[in-house]
Amino acid sequence: MLRKDEQKEQTGSPGLPEAAGVSPLLEPLLAIHSASDIGWLTDAAMTAAERGVGALYGFLYLGTESGELRGEEPASPQRIGSIARVTQTLGVDPTRLAIDPEASGPVAAALRDGKGSSTTSLDAVLVELPDKQVEKAQRKMGVSDVWIVPVEANNETMGVFVLLLPDNHTAAIGTAEVLGRHIAVALANLREGDAARKRGELDAVRWIHDERKFVEELGIEIQRSARHQRPLSVLIVRVDGYVEIRRRHGRFLAERALRRVAATMEDAMRATDFLGAYGEDGFAAILVEADETAAANAKKRYSDTLQKLDLSRANLPGLELTFSCAVATMKQGGSAAEELLAAAEEQLDLGEEQVA
Asked: N or C: which end of the chain has fewer CB within 10 A?
């Protein structure tokens, strides 16, 4: 997801457009809020763009961890056929493209200001395509204006909705902005539903195994290692000063940073490692078959990876994190999960190692 640098007041209900624009949007909005997954939400958003705003086409682009905006594909055969016609004209499927917000002025303006922005050139949005190719396709489709509408709710910007408007249109961009807010609320509800279904094993903030699941898995691995007399270690990583980070930057931005740290640690994992959330501000990894030497090497591997963490690519510019890292190895004959974790925590409390 993307996060706005400057907080705005919470919008609450996405609202409805002026009276003249209510009726065309009511039925499509119902479909948006009834969507069962992203594909059907994209489908409903495209229908709403056509019926409620008078757009020729609408394309939904959602944020990724890398900071790009990735196109979403609709679900129904009718909408897939519509995309196929655009693809034939444009020479590329717009739902399979990525948008770099920093390379597109109109997209950057929409994300920065939280308002719809417009351009007369589709190539200002699809910057990776040749200008002449886009201009020719735009003329053939009869597109005169391109609107970029932020998809945001409760100060959380999730992406943009790109609308292609025909010649001599009379639509108001404010109606499209309302549509963007409804899409965002529906998307947030979908994601919350997915998280709720997984919450028995996944941490709702960090999107990795929760602490309960981690301790359960650690107990299983301790029993296995003791039975086969094989080494086992754990690693704990703590984000330094997390409470202060939340106070200064807000909960949403702080939690996004934690998710970025989790994704970075997953990249450093071996296939046999098991990563979980630990406490409010930390992470723990089970290092299977790792004696003291292997645990030290693992700690260096994770530490080196965290040193390269670039939060600016996750739309978190200016936020710098430091981490404390420690490992503990199971004693011969076995240890309880709590004992092994306590040994690692003791090293953290002693300030064994800090990663910048």
From this structure: C
Q: How many residues does the chain have?
A: 356
Instruction: Name the helix (H) or strand (E) containing 237.
Output: strand 232-239
pLDDT (average), residues 174-195? 87
| Cβ proximity of 158 and 187 under 8 Å | yes
Global pTM reads 0.53
Give the CATH number of domain 211-355.
Answer: 3.30.70.270
Which of 246, 252, 283 minimizes the C-alpha distance to 268? 283
Give me the DSSP letters along 68-137. Answer: -EEE----SHHHHHHHHHHHHHHSS-GGG-EE-GGG-HHHHHHHHHSS-EEES-GGGTSTTS-HHHHHHH
Distance CA 46, CA 94 (A): 13
Question: 2-196: which CATH topology?
Answer: Beta-Lactamase (3.30.450)
Domain positions in the chain:
2-196, 211-355
Rounded to the nearest 5 degrees, what angle is found at the Cα of 290, between the Cα atoms of 213 and 295? 95
